[in-house]
Amino acid sequence: MSITVRQLHPLFVAEVSGIDLAQPLRAADRDALVAVIDRHAVVVFHDQTLSDDQQIAFAGHFGPIHASAQKARHRGIKHRLARDEIADISNLDGDSRVLEADNRRRLDWLANRLWHTDASFRAVPGALSMLYAHVVPAAGGDTEFADLRAAYDALPEATKKQLAGLVAEHSIWHSRGQLGVANYTPEEIASLPPVPQRVVRTHPGSGRKTLYLASHASHILGMPVADGRLLLLDLIEHATQPRFVHAHTWRQGDLVIWDNRCTMHRARPFDTTEVRDLRRVTTRDTASTLEQAA
Questions:
Q1: CATH code given to domain 4-291
Q2: What are residue 265's phi and psi, to 5 degrees?
Q3: Residue 15 DSSP code
Q4: Which residues of 154-193 are buried (b: 16+ CB within 10 A; e: fewer)?
Q5: Which of 3, 32, 147, 291, by CA, is between 20 and 30 Å from 272?
């Protein structure tokens, strides 16, 4: 099988064709895809037909899979998807009905519209996310991606020196709190305690320095909270300038892979009375960023 790669943005993002992801992945194709991911950070595949099991099997070629955190922070409700490896990125309840406006899971889900990096709130954070589109709305619901390697490269040298060695505390409850969503039980909150992560890290696949940012990042350790939050806001504003951002418009059958170690992303608005059914599998990084090269 011979894959074709087409770059979609001057800095990152590629479209790959010539491969059926539902079929067993040969070692040579797996290695080719890893090289494309390391170079482009966001990789788009069109016209795929994947069951949940096939999506999980494909993701497993790229590392251990994170169990979704959704069941940990939404206890006592009916979940739609059976496999713990799949995160339900939809506006549907456990009976596949569109969520009401005041539904607790919908309010939590709205935080996906903030710039973030998947699972940075876990001690061993996310590596690759693979999001597959089963049903998309007629309009809206794009996902935007930001290249944090290019954003780091564009920083003034004085800022790079300022950031060297800084560590931020990440918590999923911080990102939800920004939208005033706070109706979680003590047990749910205790299940996902805050964790430290580097602000700047070296991407292992490309060897490039990259910012590591997310709406989950609450403050900078060892710095007054207000100062740290302002610094993080400034960095996110810098990293999400239009020159660093690409918007993906979803089609049914799209699978998009992105590298959480060097990108941020956010969902964009759509008519939430329409069904949007996307499902994500995320692989685990090798260790906390504190244990990896700065």
A1: 3.60.130.10
A2: -150, 165
A3: E
A4: ebeeeeeeebeebbbbbbbbbbbeeeebeebeeebeeebe
A5: 147
3-state helix, strand, coil in the chain (%, to 5): 30, 25, 45
Q: Which residues lie below 8 Å from residue 158, measured CB to CB, with a gap of 6+?
A: none
Q: What is the pLDDT of residues 276-293, one digit of tens each?
A: 999 999 999 999 999 999
DSSP state of 192: S
Asked if 74 and 264 touch (Cβ cutoff 8 Å), the reply is no
Radius of gyration of the chain (CA): 18
Structure tokens at 243: 């020159």
- 185, amino acid identity: T
Helix (H) / strand (E) element for 37: namely: helix 27-40
Q: Tell me the two tokens of residue 30.
A: 């797996």
Backbone angles phi, psi at 104, to 5 degrees: -60, -40
For 145, the token pair is: 């991606």
Distance CA 279, CA 86 (A): 6
Residue 158 region by backbone torsions, left for phi larger than 0, else alpha for psi between -120 and 50, else beta: alpha
Task: Say if strands 42-45 and 14-17 run parallel, antiparallel, or are unpaired.
Answer: parallel
Q: How far is CA 149 from CA 195, 206, 272, in A?
A: 22, 10, 33
**pTM of the complete model:** 0.96
